[in-house]
Amino acid sequence: VRASAHKVNNYRYLDTLPDRNLPISFAKLRIMPHISSSRVTPAHFEKTKADMYSQRHIIETPELVIDSLSLLETELAKLSHELSAGIREAEEKCPMIATSDNHRLMFLRCEMFNAKLAAKRFAKYWNKRIELFGDKAFMPLTLEGALKDDLVALLIGFAQLLPGKDEAGRALIWVDASYLDSTKYTRESMVRALTYIEHVALEDETVQQKGVI
């Protein structure tokens, strides 16, 4: 016999035909649901045991990282032209940052290696970064780079990254609203300063995996 498959709507019709060109009866038809092979998470992964906060984290392997980055690339290509505008501009003006595996892994870790969610977060991040920093968005987020005009807001002491981590490995950011003084900086400058502090915390891969409090 020979088997031929025809996809109609969401079903796959598998008809088994004799070698001779004889009419086929409906009794010989089997209807099977069509199952998509697309996926947005790694094919195989394991998680750690639950920590003190009942959170389980994905155990990263070289194979998982490679697979996840490939899935992310696929999902980025599916984004709408409008949503991906910031990514395209970043890839053109600062490819060393925007196309870096380390940079993209932050978003995969944030979404537990769900490439579809990570792609959307990545796009929203770059759109907001460009809105917030303007042309400086394509510079490194350092005191000498994108933050060079926001030192007053940064040094006012409203938010500080504390040394060390908590017992679960999360970074500690201390905030004290009594330090706020909007006469010395703009609201946008303070938001840029807070963004910088978060980025400094996220330079640690453990923090990317475990989070910030």
Structure description:
InterPro entries: CRAL-TRIO_dom_sf. With 213 residues, the protein is an alpha+beta fold. The protein folds into two domains: 55-138, no CATH class; 141-212, CRAL-TRIO lipid binding domain (Phosphatidylinositol Transfer Protein Sec14p, 3-Layer(aba) Sandwich). The protein has eight helices and five strands; from the N terminus they run E-E-E-H-H-H-H-H-H-E-E-H-H. Strands 1-2-3 form a three-stranded antiparallel β-sheet, with no helix packed on it. Strand 1 and strand 2 form a beta hairpin. Helix 1 crosses helix 4 and helix 1 crosses helix 5. The protein is flat, with a radius of gyration of 25 Å. It starts with a strand and ends with a helix. Residues 1-37 have low confidence and may be disordered.
Task: Explain briefly what this protein structure is.
The protein has 213 residues and is of the alpha+beta class. It has two domains: 84 residues, no CATH class; 72 residues, CRAL-TRIO lipid binding domain (Phosphatidylinositol Transfer Protein Sec14p), CATH 3.40.525.10.
- Structural class call reads alpha+beta
Number of DSSP helical runs: 8
In spatial order, strands of the major sheet run 1-2-3
Q: Summarize the biggest pleated sheet.
A: 3 strands, antiparallel
Number of domains: 2
Report the strand count. Answer: 5
Binned, the helix content reads 25-40%
